[in-house]
Design a protein that fits this description.
Layout lengths: L31 E5 L5 E5 L5 E8 L13 H7 L10 H10 L3 E6 L4 E8 L3 H13 L12 H12 L2 H13 L21 H11 L6 E5 L3 H12 L18 E5 L4 E10 L5 H13 L17 H9 L4 E9 L4 E10 L3 H17 L5 H13 L6 H14 L4 H10 L2 H5 L8 E6 L11
Parallel strand pairs: 2-6, 7-11
Antiparallel strand pairs: 1-2, 3-5, 3-6, 4-5, 8-10, 8-11, 9-10
Length: about 450
């Protein structure tokens, strides 16, 4: 869901963005019902004949809302999901989940925590009760938090081996230095063992707020989901949490690793999610800057974008070029990712950065290429699964976005000038990892 347009899947179900993902779903069903409970919780359902029910509860949380004293609490909460509640033990939740064929999961990012479930529709009402109770009636014990220390350390050990996943964090840290968006959604190694049960419970009590909580179900009765939400989420605080805006700064990050390849992300600041036009523009710009790479298996990324073509002309070794769009309520990043042999990094990044600037200035793409980028952006708003629909509806109501149908209409009418007007800053941010000896500095590009 948050969605981050990138060809590398984030490890351990962490997500940089809920609202911008490559498979954002256009509505599978026009039968969407929406209710707002008396405390502000939104309940959204859509019909399905698949025999499967998909559910999600999305709450405010994530690293943006953490402080120096509780840094890493969202990571712990993700790992503590589906522990004991007011009426169920963790063992009971797990065992009954297995007996009903239910799959539970949780993920967190910079600005959200999401709890999800998929089950046979025959068990929909029961699983809705479990899922909402996990969020609204957790019974977390003090001893359960230190038990997660080893698991969090294992998470970080796995992530540390993934240059691509770490590169996302590097770009955010350098782009929003000193701001909430700079904080990693993963616990810092120095914070392992530093959190108490009270820290976690306090974060839940203040951040899991009714006005910013969204419950979505596909393949469940609307009345049944409303009843579960009323029962278990009625005691959530009605005071919505706040967080300081994040400011973009033009800067760079270079982290050498043992990899033989160089991975580089070059980004520019864009407007936030408040305007459908700006949101649509960022989706189109991502396509112009590389999209998902080639749409033809084994084909070169040179045929996808000006950036890909420029890199192909500069090097003869294999490479990968893709675009990304990471958007938030207060700011956003759009740009290009280049992965290439370290030996060819200087030529590839120099050529790619030149093409990047041409696209950002509006000079690097034709009317036909602009139309093609719009078509690809609209295609990615098309639903591919029921889980996609849950993600799309959760994003729409959690972030207050336009519906996907409205976004498609906005993209269709989008002009070049409107697309380029979404940029907030002329500054650039660059992050590089791997064999980066040849990667040029921003001042050299």
């Amino acid at each position: 869901f948050f969605f981050f347009f990138f060809f590398i899947m984030y490890a351990l179900r962490t997500s940089t963005r809920l609202a911008v993902r490559a498979n954002v779903a256009r509505s599978m069903s026009t039968n969407v019902e929406v209710s707002t409970l008396s405390n502000g919780v939104k309940v959204v359902t859509a019909g399905s004949n698949s025999g499967i029910t998909s559910l999600a509860v999305t709450v405010t949380g994530g690293s943006m809302y953490e402080t120096s004293s509780n840094a890493g609490v969202s990571h712990y909460l993700r790992n503590l999901a589906f522990q004991s509640t007011s009426s169920r033990t963790a063992v009971r939740i797990a065992r009954e989940g297995e007996n009903t064929g239910t799959q539970y999961s949780a993920e967190s990012g910079r600005d959200f925590i999401q709890y999800k479930a998929q089950t046979l529709s025959a068990h929909a009402d029961y699983v809705a009760d479990v899922l909402t109770e996990v969020v609204g009636a957790s019974n977390l014990e003090d001893w359960e938090v230190p038990k997660q220390n080893e698991r969090v350390a294992q998470d970080l050990a796995i992530i540390s081996q993934n240059d691509e996943a770490n590169l996302v964090d590097d770009l955010h840290t350098t782009s929003f230095w000193g701001s909430p968006l700079a904080r990693s959604p993963n616990c810092l190694p120095c914070k392992i063992g530093g959190l108490t049960g009270e820290d976690v419970r306090t974060f839940q009590a203040t951040q899991f707020a009714a006005p910013t909580t969204v419950v979505v179900g596909v393949g469940i009765s609307h009345d049944a989901l409303v009843a579960a939400a009323n029962k278990n989420l009625g005691s959530l605080t009605t005071t919505a949490p706040s967080v300081a805006n994040s400011s973009f700064c033009s800067s760079e990050s270079f982290v050498p690793t043992s990899s033989s390849n160089a991975s580089v992300m070059l980004g520019v600041s864009t407007n936030d999610l408040s305007s459908p036009k700006d949101y649509a523009a960022s989706l189109v710009l991502r396509q112009l800057l590389g999209g998902n790479g080639s749409s033809v298996k084994w084909a070169s990324d040179a045929c996808v974008s000006k950036v890909g073509a420029a890199v192909a002309a500069a090097v003869s070794s294999p490479f990968k070029v893709s675009g990304f769009a990471s958007l938030y309520k207060s700011n956003g990043l759009v740009g290009t990712h280049i992965s290439v042999s370290g030996a060819d990094a200087a030529q590839a990044v120099t050529a790619g950065a030149k093409a990047f600037e041409e696209v950002v200035s509006g000079l690097g793409f034709s009317d036909d290429e602009f139309e093609g980028a719009k078509q690809r952006a609209m295609f990615e708003l098309t639903c591919e699964s029921q889980d996609d629909l849950v993600s799309a509806l959760s994003s729409q109501y959690f972030y207050g976005l336009a519906s996907n149908d409205e976004l498609v209409a906005t993209i269709k009418s989008l002009s070049k000038d409107q697309c380029l007007s979404t940029f907030k800053s002329k500054g650039r941010a660059l992050a590089a990892r791997g064999n980066i000896d040849g990667v040029p500095r921003l001042s050299q590009l």
